[in-house]
Every structure is written in C-alpha cells, then in structure tokens.
Amino acid sequence: MIEITLAPDAWTDIDPGTHALVDQWLVGEGDAVRAGQPIANVVLVKTNQEITAPADGRIEKILVRSEETFARGEPIALLKEST
Amino acid sequence: MLGNAQRPLRNLIGQRVDGRTELLERKAGGGAVLTGPGMVSASIVLPCGHPLLCDSLVDSYRWLGRLHVAALAEFAIAASAVPPRALHLANAVMAARTVHWACFGGLSPWEVVDAGCRKLVGLAQRRQGAGVLLVAGTLVGATDWRLLCDVMGHPEDEAVLLRRTASCEQLAGCSIEPASYASVLTRLLGEALGSRSATGEIQCHRAR
Hints:
The complex is a heterodimer. By secondary structure, chain A is mostly beta strands. In chain A, 0% of the residues lie in helices and 45% in strands. Chain A has one domain (2-81): CATH 2.40.50.100. In chain A, strands 1-8-6-3 form a four-stranded antiparallel sheet, with no helix packed on it. Chain A has a four-stranded antiparallel sheet with strand order 5-4-2-7, with no helix packed on it.
C-alpha cells in the first residue's frame, strides 16, 4: 500500500503549523489510476496544485475529504499498487 | 470572483448578488476578490522548470512581488514585498484580524504592502503538470468593499478590509489610470520574461 501525500518540496519555506486544503478529489475510492494521473487538487499558501498518482493502481481509501485540511507529511489517500 | 473556499456557497452568494455584479470562480487562490475598474490583474503562464519558478513554491512569488514594487515605484508609491520571515511582524503591525474569506483580508509571502503593511497587491498561483499560472491583482483605485462584504454575507468585515488595504490612488494622492499602471506592468513583465524566455508572449487586456 502506498500513502499518497503532497510532495515534501511543496512545503519548503512554509511555516511548520501551516495546513493544506483538499480542494477537490478527481477520483474516488475504488477507481483505477495510472502513474502521473492527477487525482486531487489541493491548496497551500494560495497555490492550487495537483497531486498525482505515484504508481499504477487503485485508490483504496481516501483519508482526507474535500474541504478538509492536512498537515505536512500527512497522507490523504492510500493506493493499492497494481501487481 | 470566488476562490476555492467559496465554491460550496456559490448558490447562496449568487442569490445575494442579485444582479449587482457578475459572479465568477477562479482556479487560483482561495479567497474572494472584487475585480473591476479599480483593479489591474496580471496572469503569467510559465512552463515547468522555468528559472523564475524557483525550487520552492513560496519563492516563486518573490520575483512577481518585487516586480510589482518596481511598478508602483514608477508612480512614486513606496511599497515592499513581504518576505516569509516578516509575515508575522507585518500582521502585528497591521493590528487587525484576518478576514479569511477574502484574498485581501490576509497576507501571504511576497505580497505587496505599503509602509503601514496595508495590502496593495495580492498573489496566487496554480500548478499543473504542464506549467504554472501566476496571478496578481493590484488595487489601483477604490474598491467597493461594502458590496463584496454584503454579497459574501459578512458586512461586519468591511471596516477590517478598509483597514487592511490601500489603493495606489490613495497612496499617490492623485488619480492613476489603470491602463497606465497596466502599461508599466506589461513593460516590466516583458523585461523580466524577455531576459529569460525567448518565447514569452505578453498580452494586455483592458479591464471592463
């Protein structure tokens, strides 16, 4: 299982207490995704950005819903990698 | 213009607008903005890996904030782009609460303020696979904060937004044509992009 989150370099120079917001999920639980496919839009410090699937697989569970926030390093979904 | 955070409230806000202005959604930035003749906006699209984007998301705002400071200086307006380490101090100087639903209700890194830390220029960006959209909005003339607060359902925030912001005209003490400011901005953007990109294309659209 792969934990999906916002890449660490996106948090560079950002205050430790800052949270990001999941603006919109582009896929749902159970959906098959391909590596590099945009799966969610998130907002951090007035910046909208995509989170992409790190590998081919299926979205096992969404951990942070739309309109909810998450901290640095916190996974927002779990991906079951294709075998 | 609604930001991401207001999207779920669009229908409710649309009822409050009641034809007084047009209601749009933007894809970059989370707060609401009232655009119009008093605001000059700039949108810059850069390919991934462009030198102006830097490695850090926050640093990507730096050149654009400083460019706006240079544009304002041409109108004899003293301003500065707030570095991340100075944000807390700037907010302390402001001594006014943040208005979370409004773009101009708070300060983010490299946004542009006057000597009293009142916001003049707001910044946002959108990062996608192919490139990055950077957007900036400058308060050149007066903004109808009452209208914005009213349609957003927060009339109590009008006084706070008035206190947290300043316009170019207010600081210059004279009328500034948005087209004149846009012209300066376009030239400076051309210089900034021209020195780094052979394919940069500058287009100027006059605000309605």
